[in-house]
Amino acid sequence: MIRKMANIVKCRFPRGKCSCSGNVGYSRLSERLDEEEFEEEEEDYFINADRTEEITFYNENESAQSVVVEKNLCASDLCQLLAMKNRVSKSVHWSIVECWTDLGLERLLEDHEHVLAAYRDMRSFSSHTRFRYKFRKDYRKYEFFFHPQQFFPPNMLDVNSENINEQNGHTRTNQCQLQYMINEEGKCPVIFSFVWLRDNQKKTWSKHYMVLKEQKLFVSQRVQSIARFFRAAKEKTLDE
């Protein structure tokens, strides 16, 4: 009777949670699993940090708005977001302007450009030069396609007016200027830039690098290929 009571007192915990339960087991947690989970969380953290960044945009009155810009956010979408944050009417004329304050240079971001990628490109060249973004209206944003003379007037071309007068009797004619530029033999500077192109079979834009040299246009998707081209051309010039 005493032995039976002892067993009852010892097993007073419900559902076999006491030490006398013979069916209860124990297994050590895997340390490898913890390391893998930690590495995955750490990787997700850095991926998310790389996809977003907080950027400040200045208005015309020098007030500013800070926006967390995602990786694939285009300039046109950001303009609509900034218009809402500044409580102004939405318009296609709102623009993001890249400003180099020390150099006095400005560049209008195109609607399809990814703002975060452009910002990081600017930051890589800004070790000795200050830059910032401005949010303002630019009514000439789409006028280039309708009135290109406003941005590239004829007097910007260095054309021999005497030769045009002799041939056609008048000056500043677009056809004459074009013919003169084609026939005139001269050395043009090497021009390097990039352009965003989209294939008709795809929905995304891709960045291509271009070099205009000796009336030939070289295009590549890799900037390393353009760099090798420049080095090869330089070595060829030195050998000559």
CATH fold-level assignment of the largest domain: Ubiquitin-like (UB roll)
**Strand numbers in spatial order across the main sheet:** 2-1-5-3-4
Question: Can you count the beta strands?
Answer: 8
Shape field:
globular
What Rg do the Cα atoms give?
33 Å
CATH architecture of the largest domain: Roll
Q: Major sheet: size, sense and barrel closure?
A: 5 strands, mixed
Distance from N terminus to C terminus (CA atoms, Å) equals 114 Å
Protein name: Ras-associating domain-containing protein
Organism: Callosobruchus maculatus (Southern cowpea weevil)
InterPro entries: GRB/APBB1IP (IPR039664), PH-like_dom_sf (IPR011993), RA_dom (IPR000159), Ubiquitin-like_domsf (IPR029071)
Domain Ras-associating: 51-138
Structure description:
It is a single chain. With 240 residues, this protein is α+β, with helices and mostly antiparallel strands. The protein has 3 domains: 50-142, Phosphatidylinositol 3-kinase Catalytic Subunit, Chain A, domain 1 (Ubiquitin-like (UB roll)), CATH 3.10.20; 153-186, no CATH class; 187-240, no CATH class. Helix content is 36%, strand content 22%. The strands form 2 sheets. Strands 2-1-5-3-4 form a 5-stranded mixed β-sheet. A 3-stranded antiparallel β-sheet has the order 6-7-8, with helices on one face. It is globular and about 55 Å long. 5% of the residues are buried.
Give a summary of the structure in a few sentences.
The chain has helices at residues 2-10, 31-51, 75-85, 115-124, 161-168, 174-183, 223-239; strands at 52-58, 64-70, 94-100, 105-108, 131-137, 191-197, 206-213, 216-220.
